[in-house]
TrEMBL record:
PROSITE patterns from the UniProt entry: PROKAR_LIPOPROTEIN
Taxonomic path: Bacteria, Pseudomonadati, Bacteroidota, Chitinophagia, Chitinophagales
Assigned keywords, A-Z: Membrane, Transmembrane, Transmembrane helix
Protein name: UbiA prenyltransferase
Domain of life: Bacteria
TM spans (from-to): 37-56, 77-95, 101-119, 131-153, 159-183, 204-225, 231-250, 257-277
Length: 280
């Protein structure tokens, strides 16, 4: 059993870091970016590994009775090892892009700020009382690292297509984050962590989810008029359709596998599709 749990944690961490890297590859491919993308992929993979494990290391008091939380509570050493490895490698590659330090520092600061309220002391505890946009914040961090930052580092492809692509990705991630927050809303209330999901009633949450998917669909379809083919647009829309179908299921089934592999995997699913089916 311990080996199974160890494998689950390790695989989950690698899977999430891999998702972020795949999303960067799609950004490079569809927007035709030109920079040292291999170094940036390594940076994103290990910085995601670090931040993901740091967040879960601080989440061992969660009340959710799932395998992930129980493992975190009893085996923090592995989290610390993954945090250390991720931090060392990402710091090394940070200096490969030192001329863009202000953008990279912004990503590090935003990532830390998301997990900071879980520290529960000093100014960090105060953040949990004002973090009404927690879900928006997380979606923005993912979009910033996987989409905005590569464009900023390239610095030659700012146009309407990049704006729409950033918007499309943000809205899809936000819709997925709403589902995660819906699952965690009772724990967030008990912990004093505020978000729109803890404020809204069931109908309000449903409307927010629908609005985010509508924003995703509109911004994605609009990309057809700025460079991307009809086939690519369809491939980009597929994860949104799957997310909509899974929404009522995920509100009742809180399985670790559904959340940490299926829903998280939807963030990069279109990346797999567009990488293997070229944009023509």
């Amino acid at each position: 059993m311990l080996k199974y749990l160890f494998d689950l944690l390790l695989f989950t961490s690698l899977f999430i870091a891999g998702c972020a890297s795949m999303m960067v590859i799609q950004t490079n491919q569809l927007l035709h970016l030109q920079y040292n993308y291999i170094a940036y992929l390594v940076f994103v993979f290990f910085s995601t590994l670090c931040s993901y494990n740091f967040h879960w290391y601080l989440s061992s008091d969660a009340t959710s009775e799932n395998i992930r939380i129980r493992w975190t509570h009893n085996h923090k050493i592995l989290h610390l090892v993954l945090i250390a490895i991720g931090a060392l490698v990402s710091v090394w590659y940070f200096f490969q892009f030192i001329e863009h330090w202000i953008w990279l520092a912004g990503a590090a600061f935003l990532t830390f700020l998301y997990s900071a309220p879980k520290l529960q002391y000093g100014p960090f505890a105060w953040l949990s009382r004002i973090a009404v946009g927690k879900t928006l914040f997380l979606a923005f961090v993912w979009m910033y690292v996987t989409t905005f930052l590569p464009i900023a580092i390239d610095d030659h492809h700012w146009n309407m297509a990049t704006v729409l692509f950033c918007t499309s990705r943000f809205m899809l991630i936000y819709a997925i984050c709403i589902i995660f927050d819906y699952r965690d809303r009772d724990y967030d209330k008990l912990s004093g962590i505020r978000s729109m999901i803890t404020y809204f009633n069931e109908r309000g949450i449903n409307n927010l989810f629908a609005a985010s998917l509508a924003g995703f669909a509109i911004s994605t379809v609009a990309l057809y008029f700025y460079e991307l083919s009809a086939l690519t647009i369809v491939l980009l829309l597929i994860p949104g359709v799957i997310t909509a179908v899974l929404y009522p299921v995920a509100k009742k089934n809180f399985s670790d596998y559904l959340y940490y592999f299926v829903l998280d995997g939807l963030m990069m699913f279109s990346s797999l599709l567009t990488i293997f089916i070229p944009n023509k």
